[in-house]
């Protein structure tokens, strides 16, 4: 089950969904679009697009399903993902920003394969800045300034220390821009913390998975483009910038 929070960006959402359909080998997928209040024109565009994609899926004999949850409310990424998770029927949940673009065919097979292993909590993907082989995300670690992306803005044309940008790595946390986890485990730990409306909700989720004895795995052999921050609000609106309020893990 692919949960995609989205509002008033039918063109961006369309790029995400079409790239997913055209460049993904994994075919048993339900898409759950959670819309927190697009205007009437954009809502109609999204509904028409999903109807067309569903018809196309039938002609291609693929097991794609689309659900559109239109629930006007203030932006709360955690609440939107949790709402989608409650409706999901899949064995695995993929939290996916609407501004992600798929560029490889086997990416989801790799992530699901990792999530099937009993020790795995969340599975993350390497993210590149659009049209560049420049790193946006290769996992999250704790620093003095708080949880931070490793190797952010580094060119991905070389191998960094101990293959951190090329090999699968156990990490403290991975980003929910593209995060896969077993549905059962997601519900066991309570999903995303809805008091964290914009950012660090993924870090908190991963901390709770660690506390459960699971390993969060960054799969650097999975690469996606991320057209950053179109699908989210402003980090600065959240009081959680006081990192003492986030579980006191070190990593």
In brief:
With 251 residues, the protein is α/β, with parallel strands linked by helices.
Furnish the topology, listing elements before pairings:
Blueprint: E1 2-5, H1 10-23, E2 29-35, H2 40-59, E3 64-70, H3 77-87, E4 92-96, E5 100-102, H4 107-115, E6 120-128, E7 135-137, E8 140-143, E9 146-149, E10 169-171, E11 178-182, H5 183-188, H6 201-211, E12 215-226
Parallel strand pairs: 1-2, 1-4, 2-3, 6-12
Antiparallel strand pairs: 4-11, 5-12, 6-7, 6-11, 8-9, 10-12
Helix pairs in contact: 1-2
Question: Which properties best describe this structure?
Answer:
two-stranded antiparallel ribbon, ten-stranded mixed β-sheet, single chain, alpha/beta, 251 residues
Task: Kindly describe this structure.
With 251 residues, the chain is of the alpha/beta class. 28% of the residues lie in helices and 26% in strands. Helix 1 packs parallel to helix 2 (40-59). It is globular, with a radius of gyration of 17 Å.
């Amino acid at each position: 089950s692919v949960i995609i929070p989205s509002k008033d960006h039918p063109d961006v959402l369309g790029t995400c969904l079409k790239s997913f359909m055209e460049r993904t080998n994994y075919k048993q997928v339900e898409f759950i679009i959670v819309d927190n209040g697009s205007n009437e024109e954009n809502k109609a565009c999204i509904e028409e697009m999903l109807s067309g994609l569903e018809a196309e899926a039938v002609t291609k004999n693929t097991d794609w399903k689309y659900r559109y949850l239109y629930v006007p409310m203030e932006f709360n990424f955690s609440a939107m993902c949790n709402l989608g998770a409650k409706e999901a029927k899949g064995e695995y949940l993929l939290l996916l920003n609407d501004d992600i673009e798929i560029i490889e065919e086997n990416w989801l097979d790799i992530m699901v394969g990792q999530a099937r292993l009993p020790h795995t909590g969340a599975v993350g993907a390497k993210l590149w800045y659009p049209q560049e082989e420049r790193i946006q995300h290769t996992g999250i670690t704790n620093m003095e300034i708080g949880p931070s992306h490793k190797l952010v803005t580094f060119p991905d044309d070389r191998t960094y220390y101990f293959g951190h940008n090329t090999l699968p790595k156990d990490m403290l946390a991975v980003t929910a821009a593209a995060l896969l986890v077993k549905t059962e485990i997601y519900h066991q730990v309570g999903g995303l913390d809805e008091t964290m409306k914009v950012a660090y909700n993924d870090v908190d989720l991963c901390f709770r998975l660690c506390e459960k004895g699971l390993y969060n795995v960054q799969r650097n052999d999975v690469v996606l483009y991320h057209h950053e921050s179109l699908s989210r609000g402003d980090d600065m609106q959240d009081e959680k910038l006081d990192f003492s309020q986030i579980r006191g893990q070190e990593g």
